[in-house]
Backbone:
């Protein structure tokens, strides 16, 4: 059980206390061109707080849209909004004007802080409030210029532990995006669960990775978690597998956060880099195929920490590290969380039976003005939309998204299991398996495959791959249809867009 005082500002805890405790001279955030110690970060945050309160005229509870690639300034902007008692509404860098307009309308934002590099799309977006400031630009009236005229001292707003500080929008593969609301204490709670108990990070760690700060996976892993323990983070925009490996080597990062496909690509290149600084690597965002786990371990000697998180839950709630790792399973509930598997009537099922994953813990889903709240939260249990099974030892094993289960001739087939089998084949770089409508069987298993360099599509390869799957898993699961593509459709967070594969 976590206990926090009734009055609580998460940034006062994460940043101001660290400085007060003497960590001021330690590195906090490092970017390509600038890096700040805890004291410097605090000063930047304070200047922004003063701009928000002064020239911008915002008052506690106002909502501020934030937009920018990972960068120390973006980190400072997020922290300043929370410190001022405002509500941060971070947006993914790749969102287009229309999507930004929907978010600004839904979240009723009163102000916008947007990086100059992402200005064009923002300027084209409907519903943008007049109170907009651009940053990372030398321009009169820009946030940077206003900051220079402000004092570098500011008191944190005296917020309640359960005041909302963050509205995070789900990546939502379909339908209107959902805003999830989180409290100041939720921000601390995620720091005091997964990183403390599973990751076991410490002050001498240097965090690095790809998820944008606008994605709670990145906000936690690349900003909140390091601050909570007095550690530092490298914040870089537009990372590729190569540039991430380079940056790990250059900065001697110790903890890496990214998605399974990134690790798979990095595994193939790892030999060219000195990765000896890396101690722990965390995979989340989608299921970690055993083949990817093995490739990563072979390339680096590191045992991947898999963890399932969700925007609704703010961060990771089932995971495993060290000797607790079991390839094929995500892990066990992170201390503080409970999990169970429910049948279609909402009753818990025993080990070995696939059902809907439900979780309960210090964080949970609060959709903003959305009737889907009723479907997600039942008696305090959060229903994630993932099909899982628990084994006899209490390990949770991912099967698929509940709405992605393939039903073929009466069999339930989980796409990721077929993908995992295919990924073991030397010709397969990436793949996505979906159900394709079929008159006779309802659906048939269809694999979309990206080949590794040096391999060409052919009928022989198709039947080789089909036989390869049949040797590893129950033969009825083999892909009756195989299509070769040059790339797979993915979201900005690294998730395969299965609905796009189904419609091609
Ligand atoms: C899927 C996984 C299997 C799963 C997230 C870490 O991904 C995050 O949040 P989203 O709201 O998506 C949530 C959904 O993604 N998923 C995530 N991790 C795993 N499936 N194994 C995994 N390890 O379907 C889940 O319901 O975008 C991840 C931390 C914070 C996050 N927001």
Residues:
């Amino acid at each position: 059980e976590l206990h926090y005082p009734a009055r609580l500002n998460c940034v006062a805890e994460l940043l101001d206390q660290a400085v007060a405790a003497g960590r001021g001279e330690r590195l906090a955030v490092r970017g390509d061109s600038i890096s700040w110690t805890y004291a410097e970060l605090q000063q930047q945050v304070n200047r922004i707080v003063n701009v928000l309160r002064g020239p911008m005229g915002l008052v506690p509870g106002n909502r501020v849209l934030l937009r920018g690639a990972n960068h120390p300034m973006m980190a400072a902007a997020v922290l300043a909004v929370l410190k001022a008692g405002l509500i941060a509404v971070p947006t993914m860098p790749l969102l287009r004007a229309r999507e930004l307009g929907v978010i600004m309308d839904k979240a009723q934002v009163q102000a916008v802080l947007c990086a100059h590099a992402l200005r064009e799309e923002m300027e084209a977006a409907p519903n943008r409030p007049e109170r907009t400031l651009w940053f990372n630009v030398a321009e009169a009236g820009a946030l940077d210029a206003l900051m220079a005229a402000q004092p570098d001292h500011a008191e944190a707003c005296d917020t309640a532990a359960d005041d909302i500080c963050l509205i995070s929008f789900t990546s939502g593969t379909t339908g209107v995006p959902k805003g999830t609301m989180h409290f100041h204490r939720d921000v601390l709670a995620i720091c005091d669960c997964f990183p403390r108990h599973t990751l076991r990070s410490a002050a001498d760690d240097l965090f690095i990775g790809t998820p944008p700060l606008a994605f709670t996976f990145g906000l936690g892993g690349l900003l909140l978690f390091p601050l909570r323990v007095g550690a530092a983070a490298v914040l870089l925009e537009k990372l590729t597998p190569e540039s991430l490996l380079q940056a790990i080597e250059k900065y001697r990062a110790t903890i890496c956060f990214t998605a399974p496909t990134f690790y798979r690509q990095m595994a193939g290149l790892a030999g060219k880099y000195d990765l000896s600084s890396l101690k722990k690597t965390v995979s989340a965002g989608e299921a970690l195929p055993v083949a990817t786990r093995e490739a990563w371990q072979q390339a680096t000697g590191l045992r991947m920490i898999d963890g399932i998180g969700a925007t609704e839950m703010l961060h990771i709630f089932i995971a495993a590290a060290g000797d607790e790792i079991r390839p094929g399973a995500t892990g066990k509930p992170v201390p503080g969380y409970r999990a169970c598997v429910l049948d279609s009537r909402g009753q818990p099922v025993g080990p070995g039976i696939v059902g809907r994953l439900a979780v309960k813990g210090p964080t949970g889903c609060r959709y903003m003005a959305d009737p889907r709240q009723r479907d997600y939260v039942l008696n305090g249990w959060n229903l994630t939309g993932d099909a899982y099974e628990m084994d006899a030892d209490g390990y949770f094993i991912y099967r698929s998204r509940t709405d992605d289960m393939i039903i073929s001739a009466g069999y339930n087939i989980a796409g990721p299991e077929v993908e995992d089998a295919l990924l073991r084949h030397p010709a397969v770089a990436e793949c996505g398996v979906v159900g394709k409508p079929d008159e006779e069987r309802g659906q048939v298993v269809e694999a979309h495959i990206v080949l590794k360099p040096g391999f060409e599509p052919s009928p022989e390869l198709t039947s080789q791959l089909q036989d390869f799957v049949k040797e590893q898993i129950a033969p009825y699961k083999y892909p009756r249809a195989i299509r070769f593509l040059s790339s797979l459709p993915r979201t900005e967070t690294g998730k395969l867009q299965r609905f796009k594969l189904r419609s091609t």
The two ends are 48 Å apart (CA to CA). The mean pLDDT is 96.
